[in-house]
Amino acid sequence: MFCQRHRWRRVQGGSLKKRLFDFSDVHLYVVTQPPRSGQSYTAMVQAACAGGADVVQLRDKTLSARELFRLAKDLQAICDRTGTIFILNDRVDVALAADVDGVHVGQEDLPVRVVREMLGHKKRIGCSTHSTAQALAAVGDGADYVSCGPLFATPTKPDYAPVGLALLKEYSQLIRIPVVAIGGIDATNAAQAVAAGADRVAVVRAVSGAADVEGAARELKDLILRAKESRKATAVAGRPKP
């Protein structure tokens, strides 16, 4: 339903694209990993979008610049058709050449302020952060959103210890741009991230590594939305009665 509505509004030039681009309507953020045997990136991303992914980030450090450029163009076209934001990991040069929706950088990549100078203000820029100090610095440099993580242990970030849910709660209170929870999140703990304050949840293996990518994305999207409704109901119930 979300993708259908967004696709219509994108064609019409309506306000939903703006809300999605400022991450107001983002719930599920899918990061790719190399496809399973017999699967392609295009099939993976098509399935993730069909399952309700609001953002897809292409992350593959093994591809050449030429391969990444061609793939990014193909995946951006898929995301345009489904009303999904497409983000490229790290490679600002390729993101600029392929004219994708945005780029995500880490602490060892180009500084956000430099990326902003290169891409301008029509592209989304995200930044991986592991502390409130890093997040506040990213905000000051002009990031559109930051990720907080890894929340839980994950093989995709073996050099980083889990930051835990307490840090996510700090972000929800201190960081005034959209925050994406990431790191070891799957269907067993996504609700914990939402309860701790996450409005947006990023997953890698839980969707990209699933045998049924579309089904996994749909399950997680539904879980996130239900957890947000539960959090809202709990907050309302806890308010003092007039």
Describe the overall structure.
The protein has helices spanning 2-12, 15-21, 41-50, 65-82, 92-98, 112-119, 132-141, 164-174, 190-195, 205-208, 213-237; strands at 28-31, 55-58, 85-89, 102-105, 124-129, 145-148, 179-181, 200-203. With 242 residues, the protein is of the alpha/beta class. It has an 8-stranded parallel barrel, surrounded by 7 helices. It has a single domain, classed as Aldolase class I (TIM Barrel). Helix 9 links the parallel strand 7 and strand 8. It is globular and about 60 Å long. The longest helix has 25 residues, at 213-237.
Quick structural gist:
The chain has 242 residues and is of the alpha/beta class.
Total of domains: 1
Report how far apart the termini are.
37 Å
Question: What is the number of helical segments per DSSP (H or I, 4+ residues)?
Answer: 11
Q: In the CATH scheme, what's the topology name?
A: TIM Barrel
- Overall structural class, as computed from helix and strand content, comes to alpha/beta
Binned, the helix content reads 40-55%
Shape: globular
Topology readout:
Blueprint: H1 2-12, H2 15-21, E1 28-31, H3 41-50, E2 55-58, H4 65-82, E3 85-89, H5 92-98, E4 102-105, H6 112-119, E5 124-129, H7 132-141, E6 145-148, H8 164-174, E7 179-181, H9 190-195, E8 200-203, H10 205-208, H11 213-237
Parallel strand pairs: 1-2, 1-8, 2-3, 3-4, 4-5, 5-6, 6-7, 7-8
